Q: What sequence folds into this?
């Protein structure tokens, strides 16, 4: 509840102290630790890293704790911290074909070289509350699964051999960096993908769902979904070659979409693409569907006026930090603005009342 107060600085200090107390909760309950959040709330940590554009599970877990579980606030904290970090170089593009896969599935080909790897997934659970978790019992260890040995080729490469899917043409230039440069439209695909990968999961999911319901006619198959660790390499000028500086966990999704052809392209399958930090497969699939919808112009398709085809609408509204800032600023004091509008409404009502009275008088 808001009340008029004097001495705003003191009130804000008190609000901060109250917030810290609420964050801690009942002191009779053991405090949640950062390692517990990192290890047991991994999917929340992954989302904060993906939309915060910073791969650091410990910092993401700390942000979730500080934000009391508000993931958008945690993402805001991570993005703000990211701006303080110096940049000393750029890594090479990651090679997802060399991924050590924990999960790899395809909805288009049953028999894959290396096999389908279900991995840790909710797909086959019954969505019933497991009250055994409330008892905090020990979880039996999972059987050790053998990951595919060696490089794991992408499923779309099988279609590419027959020329049935559009060829993936690599970028011949360094794409702009959305974390350091403002968005400019029209945006090329690299910039659109950057915006989608750090966009709000719920918004991107809603846009993707709209394409499946007919708003863009985006009939997609998941050609492949894979989750695993990939090496991050960086070229060192003093050495003259690249070295591995670490690894990140990513989720990659390639969709295969129907395409009836255009004036310049024969009938073939086309691609949608998603790549996100951590195990974030709902986001990666959604990203791939929206990516494909936004490619209508370059593929020579008709603009159906669907929301997911509108580049400006999607890219300017998918960022949850910008959206949150603009939305929540209206709860801050707007006393002067409101008073001016209040006086305007009063004036208009007086004028309307006078005009109505004059009309009645003339009628009599």
A:
């Amino acid at each position: 509840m808001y009340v008029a107060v004097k001495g705003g600085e003191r009130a804000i200090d008190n609000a901060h102290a109250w917030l810290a107390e609420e964050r801690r909760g009942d002191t009779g309950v053991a405090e949640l630790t950062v390692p517990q959040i990192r290890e047991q709330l991994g999917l929340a940590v992954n989302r904060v890293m993906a939309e915060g554009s910073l791969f650091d599970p410990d910092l993401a877990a700390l942000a979730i704790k500080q934000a009391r579980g508000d993931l958008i606030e945690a993402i805001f904290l991570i993005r703000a911290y990211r701006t303080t970090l110096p940049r000393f170089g750029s890594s090479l593009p990651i090679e997802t074909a060399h991924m050590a896969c924990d999960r790899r599935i395809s909805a288009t080909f049953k028999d894959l070289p290396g096999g389908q790897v279900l991995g840790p997934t909710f797909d086959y659970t019954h969505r019933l509350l497991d009250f055994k978790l409330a008892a905090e019992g020990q979880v039996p260890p999972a059987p050790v699964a053998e990951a595919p040995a060696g490089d794991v080729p992408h499923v779309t490469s099988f279609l590419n051999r027959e020329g049935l899917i559009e060829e993936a043409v690599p970028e011949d230039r360094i794409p702009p960096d959305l974390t350091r440069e403002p968005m400019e439209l029209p945006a090329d695909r690299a910039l659109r993908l950057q915006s989608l990968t750090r966009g709000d999961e719920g918004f991107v999911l809603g846009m993707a769902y709209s394409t499946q319901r007919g708003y863009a006619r985006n009939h997609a198959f998941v050609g492949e979904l894979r989750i695993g660790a990939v090496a991050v390499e960086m070229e060192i000028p003093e050495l003259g070659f690249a070295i591995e500086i670490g690894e990140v966990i990513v989720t990659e999704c390639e969709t295969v979409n129907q395409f009836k052809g255009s004036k310049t392209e024969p009938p073939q399958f086309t691609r949608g693409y998603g790549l996100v930090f951590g195990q974030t497969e709902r986001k990666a699939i959604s990203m791939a569907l929206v990516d494909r919808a936004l490619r209508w112009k370059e593929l020579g398709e008709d603009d159906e006026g669907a929301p997911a085809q509108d580049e400006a609408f999607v890219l300017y509204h998918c960022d949850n930090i910008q959206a949150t800032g603009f939305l929540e600023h209206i709860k801050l004091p707007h006393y002067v603005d409101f008073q001016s509008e209040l006086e305007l409404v009063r004036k208009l009502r007086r004028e309307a009342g006078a005009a109505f009275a004059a009309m009645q008088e003339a009628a009599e």
